[in-house]
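Blinded run. Sample ID left blank on purpose so nobody reads anything into the name before looking at the predicted structure. Input follows.
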Amino acid sequence: MAPAAAERMKGSPRTEDEKLFRRQPRPAFLDSDPWRALRILSEFVDGFDALAEIGPAVTVFGSARTHPGEQTYELARGIGRMLAREGYAVITGGGPGVMEAANRGCQEGGGLSIGLNIELPHEQSLNTHVDMGIEFRYFFARKTMFVKYADGFVILPGGFGTLDELFEALTLIQVGKIEHFPVVLVGTAYWAGLLEWIRDTQVAAGAVSETDLGLFHVTDDPEEVCRIMREYARVNHNDAGRADGAGHAGEADRAEGDVAHRGHAAID
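Blinded prediction complete.
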């Protein structure tokens, strides 16, 4: 282990997740785990309570390191705007970069812009384009909300966190834990190397099957993203109102029906 990394390990934990996974000299539950369990439960309760009636929604992921004016930022902004005009709320991690861009576009399109922020060592805060913000200490509670209340995932270029969300969704779909909702990779050139490795290495080794390549879509076109989401809604939920261009915030009748079909997100 590098000296700098070893020195960091000796210091005080910087986040609740780091406290949870750090080994203690005596069983941790004797000191704090019962209370930590209650904090974890409260995050699930708060998330479920806040998001239960948002109606149709799409979760957008991508790099926090993208800046306004850059191609990926403006692409995410455009997708957020178009999804809002299709009647979807947009859910992001609430931070900067692609998250900010998608939230910003959603507001411009008249939709409900949602940010699920996470406690990080560098004090990530909610971007200024969020209408509904929820704070989380624990990644696993936050990740549940991303999946449970989404009718689809849009994955723009990003780093390890983006890959984490991508492969978690594909795994849950592959093993039948959630409904097969659309997972759309945006940026054919960016994702080409990863997809080539999956085909040439994983499929060739039998680690995944050829049919697993059908679990996701790849495109460069924001219009195609919306078409995929619209077609999924038409086939699976017969909800023509999703694609009529009307914003859904506050439409309790549609939200109630949407909550009823969210069986795809049951975590058992």
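Unblinding after everyone has recorded impressions. Residues 239-268 have pLDDT under 50 and may be disordered.
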